[in-house]
Amino acid sequence: MGVLDGKVVLVTGGGNGIGKECALLAAREGAKVVVNDLGGSLKGDEEGSAGPAEAVAAEIRKAGGEAVSNSESVTDYTAVAGMVTQALDTYGRLDAIINPAGILRDGMFHKMSEADWKGVIDVHLHGSFNVTRAAIEYFRENEHGSFVLFTSTSGLIGNIGQANYAAAKLGIAGLSRVVAMEGAAKNVRSNIIAPFAWTRMIASIPVKDEASAKRVERMKNGMRADQVAQLGVALCADTAAHVSGQIFGVRGNEVILFDQPRPVKSLARLEGWTPDTLIEHCFPAMNGSFFSLGASASVFPYDPV
Questions:
Q1: Is 138 a catalytic residue?
Q2: pLDDT per position as a tens digit, 52-109
Q3: I want to staple 29 with a disulfide (CB 3.0 to 4.6 A). Which of 2, 180, 263, 284 is the partner?
Q4: Which stretches does DSSP call E strand in the chain?
Q5: CATH says 8-260 is which class?
């Protein structure tokens, strides 16, 4: 007996990395799986291939599970709606969507092209809209369904050279929160995961010095995609029906619950503020509560457990 016995799960980006591990684990836990992957390059600038998605689906079938493949893009709403239809036509139902599909086009913001900005936003943020919007009415009508979307510490905390990726990933946090709030009355859930895992996306990070080389080595050896998949699959289970609207991280064997923006400090002035008084009184009073400009490595400087 698995936690997803009798369920049907759509996994995007399922041909590699976290998506692949989620698809394989969902099948081992009893789900029938629609494995989606465009089969394109990391930057999303090459023609796709049906090979990666079908290879994972074939691996599931070889192990005795049930799976079909799909090689459409999450950036195309009609194509994503077709993935939902494929699940319904093939297996008669859809219970959850796990959506780690993504690309990277890193670069310093002052050098970033409009194409690189739009390309990343399209896959991550618009793609997350597409997969949630395409299934939300079906989930609401059946009063059952779970979305597992993917954010990143690049958005929650920040990383240099990833303005496009950070903007998209923080946008997904807002999207997931509202989907969870609006879906609560209909038992429709949405959660997001910020993964730490060695995938082809992480492998593309440039190594410029000894410190970054050591950090990359820690990630390669201590943070695996299959560890992230455990949480991704658990969030689809009926036994996790009380979990919604949350932001999780997975770092090796650690599961992290992130906070969400709430007021930190408030200062009032009865006669109102002016630019001078804000500079003289408000900013100094709040200075101790300001957040640093440190990247995610400054928040997680220790080796993974």
A1: no
A2: 999 999 999 999 999 999 999 999 999 999 999 999 999 999 999 999 999 999 999 9
A3: 2
A4: 8-11, 32-36, 67-70, 96-99, 145-150, 188-196, 247-251, 254-257
A5: alpha beta
Residue 302 scores a pLDDT above 90? no
What is the rounded CA–CA span in Å between residue 143 and residue 134? 15
Q: Which amino acid is at 84?
A: V
Helix axes 51-62, 17-28, angle to 10 degrees: 20
Q: Taking the domains of the chain in order of start, what are their residue ranges?
A: 8-260
Question: Which residue in 77, 91, 138, 165 is the catalytic one?
Answer: 165
How far is 221 from 198, CA to CA, in rounded Å? 8
Distance CA 85, CA 235 (A): 22
**Is pLDDT at 211 greater than 80 in this prediction?**
no
Burial class (CB in 10 A: 0-12, 13-18, 19+), 62: exposed
Q: Is 98 left (phi over 0), alpha (psi -120 to 50) or beta?
A: beta
